[in-house]
Amino acid sequence: MTTTQAMAFETPDQGEEAARAEIYGVLAALFYAPPAQALLDAIAAAPAAGDSQLEQAWSELADACRHAQQAAVREEYEALFIGVGKPDVMLYGSFYLSGFLMEKPLAELRADLAKLGLERSEAMTESEDHLAALCEVMRHLIQSDDAALGNLAAQQKFFDTHMRPWILTCCEAVEGHPNAGFYRFAALLARRFFEVEMQAFDMA
């Protein structure tokens, strides 16, 4: 999970893979729970230099972090993603793929995670098909030293199976929600990043 250390969109000594893993980590941290002030400050201190849509989305999120109040962001997170009863916006793949939670897509995901040698931590309160959990898996695959896991084919297979079919719809649901303020920028970054991922995988 992303920590409070200073982050950069991409630096000369990082390389593309490290930058990808970092963004997956940032998205996991932002969507798993309301971000701590330290995370907001770290993102605010790392504006992107460039004019691509992804870099512009990062810059907009960094600006939102500079003006954000942690308590207000927490209230927004809870209103959007927790709520009373059914959340306003679902962050679970099973919901978008089947219309229900804890359905067949989650079982298939768990089977694939087992093949990768991964399982849900007891400390994790969300199911494995949560957007943040899936981002953590992608970050793990990118950073893995295991040749069977840390290769583009394994990343693409996992992404195409468990994220591509629904992830943009989820991002758009957050962006379009009338009560989304800070999280509109977080979802915009996520959508732009996932679009770049899809394009890269399609060209691989």
List strands and helices in order, with pairings.
Layout: H1 16-32, H2 37-44, H3 53-67, H4 70-81, H5 93-98, H6 104-115, H7 131-143, H8 152-162, H9 167-176, H10 182-203
Helix pairs in contact: 1-7, 2-3, 3-10, 7-8, 9-10
What can you see in these coordinates?
- The structure is a single chain.
- This protein is mostly helical.
- The protein has a single domain, classed as TorD-like, CATH 1.10.3480.
- It is 62% helix and 0% strand.
- It has helices at residues 16-32, 37-44, 53-67, 70-81, 93-98, 104-115, 131-143, 152-162, 167-176, 182-203.
Q: Helix count?
A: 10
Provide the CATH superfamily: TorD-like
C-alpha-based Rg, rounded: 16 Å
- The outline comes out as globular
Using DSSP, what is the number of strands?
Answer: 0
Name the features.
mainly alpha; TorD-like; DMSO/NO3_reduct_chaperone
Write a compact overview of the structure shown:
The protein is mainly alpha-helical and 204 residues long. It is 62% helix and 0% strand. The model is unreliable at 1-14 (pLDDT under 50).
